[in-house]
Each structure stands twice: as C-alpha cells, then as structure tokens.
Specification:
Length: 154
C-alpha cells in the first residue's frame, strides 16, 4: 500500500535544519527531483542543463535502466550551481561528499537521513514509501504531484 503525505516548505526547512552539512545538498536534490539513491550519487556535472532548467538521470542509472529528465526548481538550481562549481574546482566528477571529503556512499545515506528525520520530528515522514511532493517546479509547469517522487534513500 502506498501512503502519501503533505510535504510543505516548512517541513523541508525543518528537515534541512537537522541535516549535517554534507547531507543537506543530497536531501535538497532528492526532495526536488524525486531521484533514488543510485540516481543521486551518480549525478555528474554534464547531467545538469541550466539553460533548459533540467537535471537528468543517465540511462543505466535510473529505474529499469531508463534515463529521464526532470525540471529544476530555483532552490535546486542554486544548490546544483554550487555543487557543480565545487566539483569542477576539485577536478572531480563526484557531486556529493561526506565530512571527510570522500564521495558519499550509497549505504551511508539511509541512516543519516533517518536520523535527520527523527531530529526534525517529522513523524508523518515514512522511511520506505513514495512521497507526493507539492514543491513548485520550473515556471509554468505546475507542481510535482507524483508517486514516482521518492524518499531520498529509497
């Protein structure tokens, strides 16, 4: 059974306030794209199209091996611009790094995220179910209201 919750900017702010700095960018990207762990951790600078306002999952990294693109929000664009700049300054292709500067590992996300959820007191946020996010998308595209948008660690 799928369960959906009402996601608000207030809840997002509460959650982000409880995320360790190295987790914040991953969580913002997940909340604003609906990407799964593997999709998030395989993002590269070339996957971001700032001109068109899209971020894409390359074929082979998405569910069923399929690629797809999703529109970016202004919040996400700001995060991705900074992350791309930092990534390129390190001459790296790895977007998200842990506190020690090493790439964030797929197995480390669930516990870190769940701890932030608990600290934020988001009792209606379930760890393993899809979400319906009511976050604004790119101008003129309405809102994201899809069960395909998932918890950042699913």
């Amino acid at each position: 059974m799928l369960a959906f919750i009402s996601w608000t900017e207030e809840k997002e702010a509460r959650l982000l306030a409880q995320c360790h700095e190295h987790l914040r960018d991953v969580v913002v990207t997940a909340l604003h794209t609906g990407f799964r762990r593997n999709e998030l951790l395989n993002l590269r600078p070339g996957d971001i199209d700032f001109t068109r306002g899209l971020v894409r999952v390359r074929a082979g990294y998405g569910k069923n091996g399929e690629g797809r693109s999703v529109p970016t929000t202004n919040t996400l664009k700001d995060v991705l611009r900074r992350v791309v700049t930092e990534t390129e300054a390190l001459s790296s292709s790895t977007f998200f790094r842990n506190r020690l500067g090493a790439p964030v590992r797929v197995y480390a996300l669930p516990e870190a995220f769940e701890n932030a959820v608990q600290r934020a007191g988001l009792v209606d946020f379930h760890f393993t179910i899809p979400l319906a996010l009511g976050l604004p998308t790119a101008p003129g595209l309405g809102t994201v209201q899809s069960g395909r948008n998932r918890h950042p660690c699913s």
